[in-house]
Amino acid sequence: MNNELRVKLGRVRGLIKDEGVDGIYIKRQDNFAWLTCGGRNYVGVGEVGNCGLLVLPDSLYAITTNIEEPRMRNEEELEKLGFKILAGVWYDTGFEKNTLSELVPSEKLATDTGEFADKIRMLRFDLTPEEIERYKKIGYDASYAMEGTLLDIAPGLTEYDIAGRVMDSMEKSGLELLSCMVAADERIRLYRHPLPTNKRVEGCVQVGGNFRRNGLVICMTRYVYFERPSDALLKQYQDTQLIDCTYMGASQPGRKYSDALREGQAQYEKLGYGDEFSKHHQGGPIGYAGRDYRVDFNTNGPIAEHQAFCWNPSITGTKSEDTVICTSNDIIPVTCPVLFPKTRIVVDNRVFIRPAILVK
Prior knowledge:
alpha+beta; Creatine Amidinohydrolase, Chain A, domain 1; Creatine Amidinohydrolase; four-stranded mixed beta sheet; 10 helices
């Protein structure tokens, strides 16, 4: 058993003990990926997969169908991780329930789709050293794929063209699409969530999205201009990044998520954009989901040590969005400018290296 799995099983079994249950059953795609150190239990992207993991105080089981069993054994290598695979024929709709009843006859079973969902999700938040290294590599590859694609685009391409090229580059790096937003010209100002269309790019384009590998999700946004942006736009983009870096710096372990939100809101006000705060959610913790929470004033905490964040402040026409890992001593970039020009943002004497607008 590797150290990462040992740590995670310790957390799950600690929750079993604390809650007085006899087992925990994990079947959500995000939680499966977390516990298996990057595995996939699904056919299509969604919430619940096709193989569940049962953790008992002294044993481990994987429950699935005869369709998924060969891949769970050969590619996900669940047996090597210590799980005994139990597979029923695909049309036996009662197999999963009956198997769980046999293995946990007390029926004191917590699941990640029931009342214990949030407590199980919170087990993921403190990333292990292995996850941090994996995340950094995923972030670099995603940044390289997106920025490399955007270096080669030109006016006349449709938003669909650009989205297709970005998705192709991501797939070649093993990153799955969760979302891809593309906005050309006036659509940047009109829509906070611009799904791509057949509109052709003329002067500028915004591209962003969520992409996943080994279960870990990165989120990022980049801008390309084919004419020099106005000084006002450049200042606004810098101000948006300043708000973003304020959120990052405020995301300290032990604090409430809502504390960080209030600091970001105060920066909006200080910079003269107070009315923009209410026009879009501000993001929040990320990891094995696109956002674990969209932080609002009722999102408490505490923030975990080594927790990933993707805040996404926006001012109409500009947005700042990158993935980082916040610790007590550092803010670790996950996505970052690799091929794009860089700019320096300073908040509370901490220097952040952020992507500048690419002007072609």
